[in-house]
Amino acid sequence: MDSATSDRAALQATADNGLKIVVVGGFGVGKTTMVRSVSEIRPLNTEETMTRAGEAVDHLDGVDTKTSTTVAFDFGRISLDERSVLYLFGAPGQERFWFLWDRLFSGTLGAVVLVDTRRLADSWYAIDRLEHHGTPFIVACNDFGGPLHTEQQIREALDLSPDVPLVECDARDRSSSKYVLITLVEHLHQLSAARVRDAAGPAAPDDDPALAAALTSEPTP
User: Fold this and answer.
1) For residue 197, how many C-alpha atoms fall within 13 Å in the half-sphere facing its CB?
2) Distances (CA, A) of 29 to 19, 54, 93, 105, 121
3) Distance between CA 37 and CA 18 in Å, rounded?
4) CA 136, CA 116: separation in Å to the nearest integer?
5) Residue 54 has what pLDDT?
6) Residues 6+ apart with CB under 8 A from 18
7) What does the DSSP 8-state code read for residue 218?
8) Which among 23, 29, 25 has a CA at the least distance from the CA of 125?
9) Mean pLDDT, to the nearest integer, of 30-56?
10) CB 61 within 8 A of CB 119
């Protein structure tokens, strides 16, 4: 387990608004890679070497070259501003660790469902659990060089609501992963503003300026 932190981005004492984000998806879709690529601190990983003992329970179709796996969660952090930070939790992908997901979802502001378009069915459980918990999410298609699918084909395969953002990404690339998180934050801001308007009626303000500033600010490099 790797839990050391980097010297380049110590959390300031003034940071008092932690926003929890979860990255979920099937086995081997790139969740650990995304957390590693975008975190401003050295991420905590709970990766262990895969053994022959797990072959009978782990489904390795399409990921037969994978040699390690997350057994608890990954953790990283991105600062939005001096007082607000995103805490990133990458969920384990194998079915035998799914029991951990409900605990990870507790207190979550929103989620990224990372998918491999060669194995779209592996993402159904993640979407089902998020919808069960009422957790807002977006879907990000990680680039594995597989066959191309249209946005409509992916939406139909995953039965996505039209208001759920769908983006493409390369989880290995920091800027691409940042774009995914910014898309999620903007989605959450829009949902929050809509709830404010619905609760207060036609005279409600468009949004909460403080929330807008915290959520729409691009994470610092």
Assistant:
1) 10
2) 23, 18, 8, 19, 12
3) 20
4) 20
5) 45
6) 84, 85, 87
7) P
8) 25
9) 70
10) yes
Token pair 């969740």 is found at 31
Strand partners, 47: 70
pTM over 0.85: no
Tokens encoding 6 = 């980097």
pLDDT (tens digit, 9 = 90+) per residue, 156-185? 999 999 999 999 999 999 999 999 999 999
Picking from 131, 82, 79, 123, the residue whose alpha carbon sits closest to that of residue 105 is 131
**Residue 53 has which token pair?**
């003992």
Alpha-carbon Rg for the chain, nearest whole angstrom, is: 18
> Letter for the amino acid at 220?
T
Residue 151 CB coordination number (10 Å) = 12
d(CA 28, CA 64): 10
Residue 95 is encoded by which pair of tokens?
């079915």
